[in-house]
Design a protein that fits this description.
- This protein is of the alpha/beta class and 515 residues long.
- It has 18 helices and nine strands.
- Helix 2 crosses helix 7 (120-147) and helix 15 packs parallel to helix 16.
Length: 515
């Protein structure tokens, strides 16, 4: 039996994509006549290249000849050399590209074909738009090819697609300069709004009075890093702040929890709000009065404008898409990320984890500016805090975190508008601060970097059994007895003489189930 010859049809490469599209009756987006006009203007007009150099690159041109010529013009401009027919021809000869550019005669024809430079920028932007359209066609064709591959992991492909599209949009997003007058008016309007507020703040109040006084509130477009070693209470701090803002002040917030599930996060929030120990919430072993207290306090959470997302290993591209929708559809005023080192920037290649973390922090700052909201990202500190020693190990300053302790990348410090550390000396068995004050049950918020304000320390109370931070002057929740029992607050419960601790109401709030 004669051997059958099997032939496989290969996908056209990028070099012959133009021919393939032409065979289908469709050419790639192009504006060759406008390309000639733009290059002709750059050769004739003295300031023409400076006008278009911000958004045009050699690869922006469809014709390969025009790419070579524009590259020569770019080289002349970089060397501060004059740009005209003779210098462009000479530069092409030096590069060995004169023949590829169509020869000296073609360069001369380009200069003669330019009628007027009055519409140069408009023409050049059309050329740039055509180039972007070609890039999108190439990008989508590659994604389509990979999607047909059965061996391709679809989640990895989605990450790659997001990364490439992000890079494409970033490389083509150019923001022009602005004359200062409207910026002055905007700054003055913000100042008037701040002056009209009774709390004297210009940003979002965290609910921690002394911290707000030092920061003037969390400011729009700021990236705030809150860093600490494990067990210092990073998540407890932002949950306490979320309670102050979303529950007490009805400020819409979004929290991305990469470390805990939504249920675990809400359990921590229940501990914080309901003033019931975390162990009891976890085990469900609550006394009758505690069930009633849970029922009563839980109602404060229903309807709160707090949105949670527990996507693991969240990428900066996923965050960007979700954050835009949260701001647009739900009016979210601030985003919290727990925590930065668990994020990734997949879809792009990096030489090291430090480079990836740098991209993440830079992207978070860009997102804060784009959405004009504060973004708070929690961050881990490296082990140098524990390894740091002094002549006196019990010195209150021996374990204080420093900017150099930020984990994995110095870019975090560079990109952040504010860096705050959470420090609890009591954790290190340091029971007196530098001024002799008792540190038991106390925490310090150390503002180590503040791009637009002062640095300093703020003291807060910390109740570990409730995973809760409070102002120094706030009324304290009840302390547990020696057996761990926490007495109820009679004034807040429906009690009577026969049942001093309150009884469990069988008609609990909807959707409430014992943990």
């Amino acid at each position: 039996m004669p051997e059958q010859k099997v032939t496989t049809r290969r996908r056209p490469t990028r070099s012959n994509e133009q021919d393939s599209l032409a065979q289908l009756g469709r050419l790639q987006p192009q504006a060759v006549e406008l390309e000639k006009a733009v290059i002709g203007a750059c050769i004739i007009e003295q300031d023409a290249f400076a006008t278009v150099s911000d958004f045009l690159k050699p690869q922006s041109f469809y014709e390969s000849k025009h790419q070579v010529i524009f590259q020569a013009i770019q080289s002349l401009a970089a060397a501060n050399s004059p740009i005209d027919v003779l210098t462009v021809v000479e530069q092409l000869q030096k590069n060995g590209e004169l023949e590829n550019a169509g020869g000296a005669a073609y360069i001369a024809d380009l200069s003669r074909s330019m009628l007027s430079a009055a519409h140069l920028e408009y023409h050049a932007r059309i050329v740039a738009q055509k180039a972007l359209a070609r890039d999108l066609i190439s990008y989508t064709s590659e994604i389509q090819r990979l999607a047909f591959d059965d061996g391709q992991d679809i989640q990895e492909l989605m990450q790659k697609a997001e990364g490439q599209l992000f890079e494409l949009s970033k490389s083509n997003l150019k923001k022009d300069f602005t004359q200062i007058d409207p910026v002055i008016n905007e700054a003055y309007e913000l100042l008037r709004k701040a002056a009209a507020r009774t709390d004297g703040l210009s940003g979002l109040a965290s609910g921690f009075d002394k911290l707000d006084a030092m920061t003037s509130g969390w400011q729009n477009s700021d990236l705030i890093i809150i860093a600490a070693r494990p067990a210092m209470g990073k998540t407890a701090f932002v949950l306490s702040m979320a309670r102050n803002m979303a529950v007490d002040r009805q400020i819409p917030l979004a929290m991305f929890s990469l470390e805990m599930s939504n249920v675990q996060l809400v359990n921590r929030l229940l501990v914080n709000v309901c003033e019931i120990s975390g162990e009891k919430i976890k085990s469900g072993q609550l006394a009758n009065y505690e069930w009633q207290q849970l029922d009563l306090k839980m109602r404060e959470l229903f309807g709160a404008p707090l949105y949670v997302d527990d996507t693991p290993s969240l990428s900066v591209f996923e965050l960007r898409t979700k954050a835009r929708r949260l701001v647009r559809d739900y009016g979210v005023k601030m985003i919290i990320i727990d925590y930065l080192q668990l994020m990734n920037a997949s879809g792009m290649s990096y030489g090291s984890r430090q480079e990836e973390v740098s991209t993440i922090s830079r992207s978070l700052k860009g997102l804060a500016k784009e959405l004009n909201i504060p973004i708070i990202a929690l961050s881990q500190l490296n082990r140098s805090v524990e390894q740091r020693t002094s002549s006196n190990p019990e010195s209150p300053d021996s374990k204080r975190p420093q900017l150099s302790d930020l984990r994995e990348s110095g870019a975090i410090e560079q990109d952040a508008d504010m860096v705050c550390f959470i420090h609890r000396p009591e954790y290190y068995k340091i029971y007196k601060d530098a001024h002799g004050n008792d540190t038991k049950g106390m925490a310090e918020i150390i503002i180590a970097k503040h791009r637009n304000g002062a640095v300093g320390d703020v003291r807060l109370r910390f109740r570990s059994e409730f995973a809760r931070f409070l102002n120094i002057d706030d009324s304290m929740p009840p302390m547990p007895d020696d057996d761990g029992t926490i007495k109820p607050i009679p004034s807040k419960l429906n009690t009577d003489a026969d049942d001093p601790f309150g009884s469990l109401d069988n008609t609990m709030a909807p959707n409430v189930t014992p943990f």
